[in-house]
Design a protein that fits this description.
single chain; alpha+beta; 5-stranded antiparallel sheet; binds flavin-adenine dinucleotide; 8-stranded antiparallel sheet; Vanillyl-alcohol Oxidase, Chain A, domain 3
């Protein structure tokens, strides 16, 4: 899959020079003074952490070869541009699965490490870095560092969740897990309000490997924080499995007004009532369960040419109920959110990265079309609420948090700076270090 060299939210816009890497033995190109590089996977980060405006991107999508697989342990070594989709296409039909997967499979191994991505299994499996045994880090001075919890452990901790700034990851070794097959037993349950969501989360964390909830961000009053809770486990079903065909493509940019408070409210109400009974159970292939959005290629064009922002926070459990209530009340009152709103609990497994996002608590992620003057002030207020509650925002989804907030949310940033490759930089990093 050839990337577009913008971010998934298509906000902010950026101009780049793009250099391609082809082979593991390639060296990092030397640039002139004042020039910088940033590795680029498949651009599935929403904001500006995968952008390097006015500078150079180092495209990794051709570093896409598998190197070694050990069937006795599930240990896989592959080049950093191999995508999770490439891995699943081979592994899933043979009874192997990713230890952690985000909500899209079009993510490279390098990108998954650099953002220490998390998924529906965070309460049992932690984040991606928890399952990485080692990787090679190529620095601009030509050094190749083998990084693992034992070898160069400081570079390992800086690079997992290190936003691509510590050098180029050339290959990654991770552990896949054994599963009975490509099917998932899923239950979907309606919930009304945060108390029901939290009770369902507590119960499901004990019984299900995968949990996530869609929350209706347009609803108010007695319907505030209603949604559909989805939980799943790998199924023992032996039904024949057919590889899904690629889905349709969003052919054009939709006009900006297509997503408005009326259409979002209507969609959300229909979606909430789509299941006529409060509880529904079925067995589905892993694709629609983990990657419902991948079914429509280029779905980001639904937000129009101006693009959109995603905002994702995590708030510690002790403050989660009141904080989420306040955040959801403000968002529904603003009428600005779209229908893609996800809420889930995160578990206690500590991440390995200095700048990793995951933390125990409740995480909420939402999309906002980037066209309302009111949006930025409102998001600034939400950031403040998160900060007061002791939470943090996710850089992989961010295009606008202030430097003050970033430094508060990620207290190890000073320690991290020591490991930044002098030839590397990003739009995100320049923004949060200067403001
Ligand atoms: C529909 C959708 C759902 C998502 N769901 C989730 C989710 O549930 N959980 C979650 O955590 N994230 C989620 N994401 C975000 C996505 O998983 C991350 O942004 C991921 O890091 C993108 O990987 P990428 O290969 O596209 O990398 P890019 O977006 O291109 O780059 C991401 C970062 O990785 C760095 N990088 C890339 N390759 C290398 C390399 N070889 N060496 C060093 N650094 C490198 C880049 O410099 C950049 O800082 C979602 C995104 C989408 C579009």
């Amino acid at each position: 899959m050839r990337p577009s060299f913008q971010s998934w939210g298509r906000y902010p816009k950026a101009e780049h020079q793009v250099l391609q890497l082809e082979w593991l033995t390639d060296r990092i190109p030397q640039l002139g003074e004042g020039q910088s590089l940033l590795p680029y996977g498949l651009g599935r980060s929403y904001g500006d952490s995968c952008l390097n405006d006015g500078q150079t991107l180092l495209a990794t999508w051709r570093l896409n070869r598998f190197i070694e697989f050990e069937a006795a342990t599930g240990r896989l070594r592959a080049e950093a541009g191999v995508s999770l989709a490439d891995i699943l296409a081979i592994a899933a039909p043979r009874g192997w699965f990713l230890p952690v997967t985000p909500g899209t499979k079009h993510v490279t191994l390098g990108g998954a490490v650099a953002n220490d991505v998390h998924g529906k299994s965070h309460h049992v499996s932690g984040s991606f870095g928890n399952h990485v045994d080692r990787f090679e880090l190529l620095r601009s001075d030509g050094r190749r560092l083998l990084c693992s919890p034992e070898e160069n452990p400081d570079y390992f901790a800086a690079t997992v969740g290190g936003l691509g700034l510590t050098g180029l990851i050339t290959w990654v070794e991770l552990r896949l897990k054994r599963v009975p097959g490509p099917w998932i037993d899923v239950e979907e349950l309606q919930f009304r309000g945060l108390d029901e969501f939290l009770a369902l989360s507590r119960e499901s964390e004990q019984t299900h490997e995968y949990i996530v909830a869609w929350v209706d961000c347009a609803s108010k009053g007695k319907n505030l924080a209603r949604g559909i809770f989805s939980r799943g486990n790998h199924s023992l079903s032996k039904a024949p499995w057919v590889r899904p065909k690629p889905g349709p493509r969003m052919p054009v940019d939709l006009p900006g007004f297509a997503l408005n408070p009326l259409s979002v409210g209507l969609f959300n109400s229909l979606y909430f009532h789509k299941q006529f009974s409060p509880r529904k159970a079925r067995t589905v292939s892993y694709e629609p369960f983990f990657y419902p959005l991948d079914a429509i290629e280029d779905w980001n064009r639904a937000y129009g040419k101006q693009g959109f922002l995603q905002w994702q926070c995590v708030v510690p459990f002790e403050n989660a109920r009141e904080t989420m209530k306040e955040i959801l009340t403000r968002i529904s009152a603003s009428g600005l959110a779209s229908f893609l709103s996800v809420m889930k609990t995160m578990g206690a497994m500590p991440p390995v990265g200095m700048l990793s996002f995951p933390a125990p608590g409740v995480t909420l992620a939402l999309d906002f079309p980037a066209r309302h003057a009111r949006l930025f002030p409102m998001l600034g207020e939400l950031d403040e609420i998160v900060a007061e509650a002791g939470g943090r925002l996710y850089p992989a989804k961010d295009a606008r948090m202030s430097g003050r907030h970033f430094r508060l949310f990620y207290p190890r940033h000073e320690e991290f700076k020591k490991y930044i490759d002098p030839a590397f930089s990003s739009s995100f990093w320049r923004r949060v270090m200067s403001a």
